[in-house]
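Quick illustration, no need to memorize.
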Amino acid sequence: MDDGMKKPDEQSLAYGGQALIEGVMMRSGSHMVMCVRQPDGSIGTSMLTVRSLTRHPVLGLPFVRGIVMLFETMYYGVKSMMHSASQALGEDESFTLTDYAILLVMLVVLNGAFIAIPFALTNFLGLSGIVFNVVESALRLTMFTLYLYLISRWGEVARVLQYHGAEHKAINAYEAGAALDPDTVAGYPRLNPRCGTSFLFLTVLTSVALFAMVPQTTYWVRLAYRLLLIPVIGSVSYELLKLSDRHRGSPIVRALVYPGLLFQRLTTKEPDRGMLQVAVQALEEVKKLREADGQ
C-alpha cells in the first residue's frame, strides 16, 4: 500500500459498522445503511435515519454518553441483524421493542454470568486484595477468550465473521484514502482498533481498576457491587476507546489496544470478493447520505 496516502482525520473517522447475516451495516452520525445479499444474488439496500440521544446536552456528557451509546448500539445492531435475516432468507420479519426487551434481559444475564462466575471461583480460592482482582480478571479474560473461540468455530457464524472482516477492510481502506473498490479494499487489514471486540477487552482492564476500589466486605455485597458497576465499566471503557483513537500513534496506546486486535483474529475472517462488494456498497451509500447533509 502507498505510504503517501492521506492520514485519517476527523472527517474520515466518521463511520462505523457491523457485520450482518449475508450483509454489512454502515453508520454515520445520522444515517444507517444496511446492504444484504439477496437470495437471487443481488444486493438489497435499506436506509434509516437515526438521531442519537447523545445529542442531548446532558446525555452527551462524557461518561454519560457511553451508557447511552451502549444501548443505542445494541438496539440498532439487533434491528439490523433481524432485518438482514429476513432479507437473506426472503422472509418478512420485524423487530419490536418487546424483542429488544427480551434480548436486553438475556444480555444482562450473560454479562452477569461473566462477572459472577470468575468472582465465585476466585473467592473459592480464598484470595484477597490486589491478588484477588488480578486472578478474578484473568479468569474473566479466559472465559471471554473461550467464548470468542467457540463462537468463531460455529459454522453458522463463520460467514458473519467474514462479513465482519469485510466491514473492517472497507473502513480501513477509506480512512487510508484508498479507492473503494473490492480489489483495492481486499489489500487492507481485517482488524480495526475501534471494533467492539477491542471495546470488550477494555472492559476487562477497566474492571480490574474499578473492582480494586470495592470495599472488602461480605461476599454478597462485593458481588452486588460488581453487578451494579457493569454500566460504569461500559461507560469508562467507551471513553478509553475514544481516547485511544485520538492518540492511536502513541506507543503506549498501541500496546494497550494490541490485545484487542489479537482477539479480533477470532471474531473476523478473510472475506471473499462478493462480501467486500457488499461492504463497499454500504459504505458508499452512507457516505452519500452524510455528504448530502453537508457534513
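The chain has one domain: 16-292.
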